[in-house]
Amino acid sequence: MSQTTNPEVVFGSQYLVTLGRNLHETTLVDREIGELADLVEEIQINDEYSQEEEQESEDSEREQNIGETSGNIRGKGRARGQARGRGVGRRGRGGMPSCQLPTLPEPPVFTPMHNIQGLHRGYVMLPPDIQLDNNVNILALFKLFFTDEQLQMIVESANEYEQIKGVEGGRPWYPLTLNELKIWFALVIYMGVHKIYAVEDLWNSNEKRAIHSIKEYMTLLRFQQIKRFLHISKPNEPHLCWYSKVEPLASHIREVSKQLYFPSSQVSVDEMIARFSGRSAHTVRMKNKPTPEGYKIFSLCDAGYTYTFAFTSRIEKDMQITPVVGLSKTGGSVWHLVKQLPHHKTFHVYMDNYFSSIPLFKYMHDNGLGACGTVRTNSSKFPKELKINKGISLDWNTISGKVVDDVLAIVWVDNSPVTMLTTIHEIVGEEWKIIRNRRRPRETSSNASTVHRVFGNASRKELSIPKVIDDYNHYMGGVDIADQLRGYYNCQLIVHRNWFPLLFWLLDTVLVNCSLLYNKVVNENVKSKSFRIDLVWGLIKDVMDNDNSISTRSMSTTTCLYDNEESFFPQTKTKSKGPYVTKNFELPISRLLPGNHFPEWREKRGECVYCRYLTRNSRESSSSSSSSSIPQSQLWCIECNVPLCCSKSHPNCFKDFHTNTVNQ
Questions:
Q1: First-to-last CA distance in the chain?
Q2: Which pLDDT tens digit goes with each residue over 439-481?
Q3: Are residues 235 and 148 part of one domain?
């Protein structure tokens, strides 16, 4: 059945559709008109703000820059579903408040500290009895820090500590001597140069890996024993502070470092980290650092030379640091370091935002020390006028400042706003600017779009920057240089006792200081690696010259420091077993090389190395645990220094050992 349509119903539906369309179009027009009105109002307010800024500025170039950028300094685009706002500082329908240009104060006129005596360079102050010439004795420098008196105290403390702890059924301990301790330190330095992290690798005898001849001066067992019982302080003395176990050696090194070098006028204060990830309540953890965990040490350095230092703890105060009224704990630590500088001389101390504060700089200013450094905007007394919120983009090289308590606070716009404090610089005048070759920042930097207009397509460009920025970049890296030099060939070994990293840090610091002193005196640039290697063999030569009974052990006829473990650890007379043949033992390649491979009869018996080698191989192939006795022999190869058979039952061991080219 067909249904009929009522004409009145159709007409009414069409009327409603037409009416709805008209209303919708009217609403869209009204909305667009409202948005256009909001946009015009916002532009007018921005133009008024730009004109006010131009009138307040006295520099015509600054007026031009502000006029060009004022229209671009707006808030980020609307969020999805939100309309435009109603101008600066006001909310429109669903709008967000727009960002305003910060009202930065004009750069103030500031009078920096007056240097009565002028700036000076650093110089070395060696004792008169030490003469350095072409025949330089590097060992003499090292002995100024690690004197025989200090080493003898360590020897006595180690022997006392062994008496308290005991060997607990291990190999017997024989009293440590001064010469042994010198060789022990030489081996530690040597392992740092050659990146030997596992101590056992130094005594490697497998020719497939590196073989170090220096191992002949001390056995692995003796090295580990000394490492186990080494003690710096007296074991029975009470501990006055958490780092007492490296005293009095640490204090002695600190005093000698100050006596041997007069620092230049430009020094820096920063933190160092002695790496240690073991159990200790005094270590700190700092992410994104080259050494993220360890002991924090505040240091005052001059171009890599560690002049003085102070150990810090996160739970315990240092009794040597006297609190200063008005300064924080960190500020008091900085003052503890800088007050050790020589008096009646001009010094400028550079530091980063971890240490800088207006109260500290004011205190140093009143005591005749200049200071410069970056600062955090939430630091004490930092002026609020110089705080720039995130998201606001200013022209590159914009600079402003304010004087607070005889300290000049500065904000300078580079890739991002840089805030600084200084008592030794100005920011007004061409003499306080300098031309430097600057590198264009990355596109991802916060102020990349503004800086890109300055650089254009050039990757580097000669630009004028404030002298305070340039001086900070040049002189702040004194501590970083020391860290860098120490990190190349650091002496730290894997240890369990938590004070050992401080000893290794002291040793590395002494080596860096000695190297810098040496280069300054002889006016050369001796590499750190060469310096340390020369020192290692200088220590060994010093031991050999002082004790004629000690000589090196080689694979030929010379004797070793301890000819074998039996000569150093007297035991009941037993049959010598000769070289130990392990599971992975392979016949040495040197047996096939030309040389004095002649037999020699000796009183000392030893198991035939070749028979033991064949027995081990036959045991592995047969998977049998039984083994026949290894024959003893008094016939030794002079060149290889091993016992070999040449008897009726085993007539060919000597020949086969030197001719067989296949490992059976």
A1: 107
A2: 877 776 666 777 777 887 888 888 888 999 999 999 999 999 9
A3: yes
Nearest to 171 by CA among 573, 560, 582, 570: 570
The domain in which residue 61 lies consists of 1-101
Instruction: Sort 385 into a burial class: Cβ within 10 Å, 0-12 / 13-18 / 19+.
Output: middle
Structure tokens belonging to residue 7 = 């004409």
| 1, 90: one domain | yes
**Is residue 578 pLDDT above 80, yes or no?**
no
- CA 433, 435, 436, 441 torsion-angle sign: positive
Question: Which of 79, 70, 21 is CA-nearest to residue 42?
Answer: 70
Assigned token pair, 421? 């404090």
Q: Do residue 64 and residue 145 come from a single domain?
A: no
Q: Give me the mean pLDDT over the 333-362 stretch.
A: 93
pLDDT in tens, 21-78: 555 555 544 555 555 555 555 555 455 545 544 444 444 444 444 344 333 333 444 3
- Domain final residue pick, 481, 511, 546: 546
> Which DSSP string do the residues of 267-319 spell out, in sequence order?
EEEEEEEEE--SS-TT-EE-TTSSS-EEEEEEEEEETTEEEEEEE--SSS--T
Residues 89, 159 within the same domain = no
| Burial class of residue 572 in the structure, from the number of CB atoms within 10 Å of its CB (0-12 exposed, 13-18 middle, 19+ buried) | exposed
Structural domains of the chain, count: 4
- Could you give the CA distance from residue 251 to residue 136 in angstroms, rounded to a whole number? 27
What is each CA distance from 455 to 395, 415, 458, 462, 466, in whole angstroms?
Answer: 12, 12, 6, 9, 18
For residue 250, tell me if it sits in a domain.
Answer: no
- Residue 16 falls inside a structural domain: yes
Looking at the structure, tell me whether residues 458 and 500 fall in a common domain.
no
Whether residue 361 lies inside any domain: the answer is: no
- Kindly tell me the sign of the dihedral angle through the C-alpha atoms of 76, 77, 79, 85: positive
Identify whether 484 is part of a domain. Answer: no
Decide: helix, strand or coil at residue 554: coil
